[in-house]
């Protein structure tokens, strides 16, 4: 509820306004007025609620998904392109390992991966995005969630996956790749395996990172170790699995050590 302490200090919920920023109407007055237009749906406070709703919807849909691996790549590849087939092979190995497959839900590599997961009898997840120039959710998605906002969607890719496998792609693929690399490099996310498939495709990028960024000191040489490069879909999946096995062993050892220390201290 909006309250006015004096004309120089106006409180609107948790916000304090002064001078010319003091509104002409209280929040309650605006709420109870007859609706004369629909402009309110375009205002930033309403957008916050809509953003919140997207997170709630995504969390609710994926909370019980279980272990999963996200697969990225270009939407522009066709079903007869080798990358489409490769994505399906990757997804098949992911399902065989007991994991669900998460993609952006669109065409190209995403469709290839969703198709591979679906045909292998696994859970095929698509996290779609509202774009004016791209098709909707592909037909092989078993569990699909559509997002308006990239940042809400990107949160789901990381939160509900235990690793990224990245096939050749464009700006969107690079965006997801560097988002994940930044999260791991800054330890916002720990031990999150990232695998690039396609040594020829990624070679130029790796060389640039090594010969420009490392040489100029904008990243460290060991930052390149955050990525693994291969042409083998089975190896790509195994890299993710091995990283997660190592992480679980370390977590178990740490828990056991903590329990041992607590036992040695005895009851208070």
Automatic annotation (TrEMBL):
<dbReference type="InterPro" id="IPR052341">
    <property type="entry name" value="LOG_family_nucleotidases"/>
</dbReference>
<dbReference type="GO" id="GO:0005829">
    <property type="term" value="C:cytosol"/>
</dbReference>
<keyword id="KW-0378">Hydrolase</keyword>
<dbReference type="GO" id="GO:0009691">
    <property type="term" value="P:cytokinin biosynthetic process"/>
</dbReference>
<protein>
    <recommendedName>
        <fullName>Cytokinin riboside 5'-monophosphate phosphoribohydrolase</fullName>
        <ecNumber>3.2.2.n1</ecNumber>
    </recommendedName>
</protein>
<dbReference type="Pfam" id="PF03641">
    <property type="entry name" value="Lysine_decarbox"/>
</dbReference>
<comment type="similarity">
    <text>Belongs to the LOG family.</text>
</comment>
<keyword id="KW-0203">Cytokinin biosynthesis</keyword>
<dbReference type="GO" id="GO:0016787">
    <property type="term" value="F:hydrolase activity"/>
</dbReference>
<dbReference type="InterPro" id="IPR031100">
    <property type="entry name" value="LOG_fam"/>
</dbReference>
<dbReference type="InterPro" id="IPR005269">
    <property type="entry name" value="LOG"/>
</dbReference>
């Amino acid at each position: 509820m909006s309250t006015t302490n004096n004309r120089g200090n106006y409180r609107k919920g948790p916000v304090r306004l002064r001078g010319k920023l003091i509104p002409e109407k209280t929040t309650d007055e605006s709420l109870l007025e007859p609706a004369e237009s629909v402009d309110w749906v375009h205002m930033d406070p309403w957008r916050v609620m809509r953003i919140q709703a997207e997170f709630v919807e995504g969390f609710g849909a994926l909370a019980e998904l279980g272990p999963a691996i996200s697969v990225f790549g270009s939407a522009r590849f066709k079903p007869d392109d080798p990358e489409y087939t490769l994505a399906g092979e990757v997804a098949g190995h992911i399902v065989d390992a007991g994991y669900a497959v998460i993609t952006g839900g669109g065409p190209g590599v995403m469709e290839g991966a969703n198709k591979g997961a679906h045909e292998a009898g696994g859970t095929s997840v698509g996290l779609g995005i509202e774009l004016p120039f791209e098709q909707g959710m592909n037909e092989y998605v078993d569990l699909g969630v559509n997002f308006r906002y990239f940042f809400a969607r990107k949160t789901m890719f990381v939160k509900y996956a235990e690793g990224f496998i990245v096939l050749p792609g464009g700006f969107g693929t690079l965006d997801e790749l560097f988002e994940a690399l930044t999260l791991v490099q800054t330890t916002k996310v720990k031990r999150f395996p990232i695998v690039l498939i396609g040594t020829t495709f990624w070679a130029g990028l790796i060389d640039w990172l090594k010969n420009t960024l490392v040489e100029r000191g904008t990243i460290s040489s060991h930052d390149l170790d955050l990525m693994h490069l291969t042409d083998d879909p089975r190896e790509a999946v195994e890299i993710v699995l091995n990283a997660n096995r190592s992480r679980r062993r370390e977590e178990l050892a740490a828990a056991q050590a903590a329990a041992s220390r607590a036992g040695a201290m005895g009851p208070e």
